[in-house]
Amino acid sequence: MENLNLKKLQDVWSKILKDRDAKRAMRRLKRDGFGISQRRLQNHTLQHPNWAFYIAAIPLLPNRPSRTRAYSHAALRKHRSLVALLQQRAKEIADPSCDVSIMSVTDYPVGEISGLGKRLAETAAFLEQLLSWNWYIRDRNPRNALIAELRWIIRERTGRPHDSELGVLIDAAFRAAGVNEGFYIDATTLDRIEKREKEGRVKATRRLRSLLNRISPSKSDIN
Asked: How many other C-beta atoms can be found within 10 angstroms of the C-beta atom of residue 75?
């Protein structure tokens, strides 16, 4: 979201506000408990986006396939010697009978070397922990993830998904972004998008558990 152009977002939202069907859809949503701010988007919305920001962002987000990647800590064994090296350097710096000088491209003040031992020890401890992790990374479809979240929130706030109104707003957003034919999504498609997002989260959790149980059963405690 942080890569979105605020000026483009503001332009899209201002055009949505002028769309008669979009305004009617927002009135119905507000009546049923899901109010959408109609003020002009400001800079702070990039850090604290509101629902207007989300709607304007839909046509500007990439529609890329979801993908998953798994990484085993076993593949990082070759880097574990670095932990031992950092620990050894930390001990040497901490030894009062050991003189330490550092030569590098940038000068490291002698007065700061004494404090370097603690940093090395902390870095070694964190690196040792990092190298024990098994990673499971899921890249979601940004556009569909946002649509699914909007649909879920609308249903939570109003008691039903309001697919007709959400579809109108999405269509208005695409037309405001320059897609002349619009991009209307019907209730069946919206339902499928949300279900895929939920299923993706469940599958990700299951695959991560399976990965940990297969690679390192003793470290398979998942919250």
From this structure: 11
Say what the pLDDT of residue 16 is: 94
What six digits make up the tokens of 10? 């503001």
| 117 membership: H or E segment, kind and range | helix 113-130
Half-sphere exposure of 149 (CA within 13 A, CB side): 14
Domain boundaries, the chain: 6-67+137-219, 73-133
What b/e readout covers 185-210, taking b as 16+ CB neighbours within 10 angstroms?
A: beeeebeebbebbeebeeebeeebee
Q: Residue 222: its pLDDT value, please?
A: 39
pTM: 0.69
Q: What are phi and psi of 142, to 5 degrees?
A: -55, -45
Closest C-alpha among 41, 38, 42, 31 to residue 17: 38
Q: How far apart are the first and last CA of the chain?
A: 27
CA distance 54 to 13: 10
Alpha-carbon span 33 to 128, nearest angstrom: 50
pLDDT means per 10 residues, the chain with 223 residues, are 78 93 94 82 67 91 83 84 92 83 70 79 93 83 92 93 94 92 86 84 68 53 40
Q: Is the distance from CB of 93 to CB of 122 less than 8 angstroms?
A: no
CB 52 within 8 A of CB 58: no
